[in-house]
């Protein structure tokens, strides 16, 4: 008989590429993970991995089974989390992590609505890297993360998600620099300019649009605005840049047509058992409801 443990071990080896990596992730012995996979192979009568050095290369059979195995692992985890949450007390604290480019207005309206509905709840809202947010969701240290869309085995298996719209982004420069006066700027024009990035920006994040040869991290948009007075540029969401445009500090780059209307998808990420917590369900609904005022 095929067990859920065998299916879960198979899924982990497929996702992580080796028995050792899967064991480290699951905090189990390598021999245990391998035994599960070998037993599964014996039961179904086909090989799932070819071992090449330290790597476990999936066979055609593994490729055909992985989507179903991933769904079964996710459903089993969902059942476990839901079962153990049935006797939970009302949520006293809600932790919301977000990409630095997410509009403050969306966050503020959501927090106000949650506090109005649940006056006793404490809300911790902070910018975060994607990896930190995922770790928080998996360990129940975070309840909701608002990040750029991603469709990876990790999110498919252990984290639920909901798409809520696209965030418009653009390149911005200081209003008094030569680039601001240029009629049309190409990506080649930007390669020799210093590009600034907010601290948590990584590949796949909302503000990740690397073009320049020199990329430097800055702690805030305020610091970027000061530094941009001496040249350079930064990619920001339209909502994040709006106050700085109004104050006269920043100006959108007149980018060529191919890159002028750049936008990125935004998703809500949350734990598999979130549908059992009234407060989290309400927060997700409010974020989705107000997203239309800030995303397209």
Automatic annotation (TrEMBL):
Keywords linked to the UniProt accession: DNA-binding, Transcription, Transcription regulation
Q: Which Gene3D superfamilies match?
A: 3.40.190.290, Winged helix-like DNA-binding domain superfamily/Winged helix DNA-binding domain
Q: Which InterPro entries match?
A: LysR_HTH_N, LysR_subst-bd, WH-like_DNA-bd_sf, WH_DNA-bd_sf
Q: Which PROSITE patterns match?
A: HTH_LYSR (PS50931)
Quick one: signal sequence residues? none
Q: Which residue range or ranges hold the HTH lysR-type domain?
A: 2-59
Report any Pfam family annotated for this entry.
Answer: LysR_substrate
MF term (GO), any: DNA-binding transcription factor activity
Q: Which family would the database say this protein is a member of?
A: Belongs to the LysR transcriptional regulatory family.
Q: Which PANTHER family match?
A: HTH-TYPE TRANSCRIPTIONAL REGULATOR, HTH-TYPE TRANSCRIPTIONAL REGULATOR GLTR
Protein name (database record): Putative LysR family transcriptional regulator
């Amino acid at each position: 008989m095929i067990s859920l443990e065998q299916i879960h071990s198979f899924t982990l080896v497929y996702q992580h590429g080796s028995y050792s990596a899967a064991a480290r992730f699951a905090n189990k012995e390598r021999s245990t993970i391998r035994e599960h996979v070998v037993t599964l192979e014996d039961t179904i009568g086909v090989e799932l991995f070819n071992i090449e050095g330290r790597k476990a290369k999936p066979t055609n059979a593994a490729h055909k089974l992985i989507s179903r195995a991933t769904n079964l692992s996710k459903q089993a985890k969902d059942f476990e989390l839901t079962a153990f949450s049935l006797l939970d007390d009302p949520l006293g604290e809600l932790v919301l992590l977000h990409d630095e480019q997410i509009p403050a207005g969306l966050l503020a309206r959501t927090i106000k609505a949650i506090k109005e509905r649940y006056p006793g709840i404490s809300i911790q809202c902070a910018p975060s890297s994607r990896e930190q947010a995922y770790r928080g969701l998996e360990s129940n240290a975070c309840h909701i993360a608002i990040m750029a869309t991603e469709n990876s085995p990790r999110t498919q298996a252990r984290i639920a998600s909901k798409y809520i719209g696209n965030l418009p982004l653009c390149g911005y420069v200081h209003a008094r620099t030569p680039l601001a006066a240029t009629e049309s700027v190409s990506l080649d024009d930007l390669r020799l300019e210093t590009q600034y990035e907010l601290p948590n920006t990584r590949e796949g994040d909302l503000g990740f649009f690397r073009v320049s040869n020199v990329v430097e991290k800055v702690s805030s948009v305020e610091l970027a605005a000061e530094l941009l007075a001496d040249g350079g540029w930064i990619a920001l969401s339209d909502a994040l840049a709006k106050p700085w445009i109004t104050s006269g500090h920043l100006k959108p780059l007149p980018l060529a047509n191919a890159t002028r209307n750049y936008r990125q998808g935004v998703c809500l990420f949350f734990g598999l058992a979130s549908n059992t917590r009234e407060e989290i369900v309400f927060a997700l609904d409010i974020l989705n409801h107000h997203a239309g005022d800030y995303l397209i």
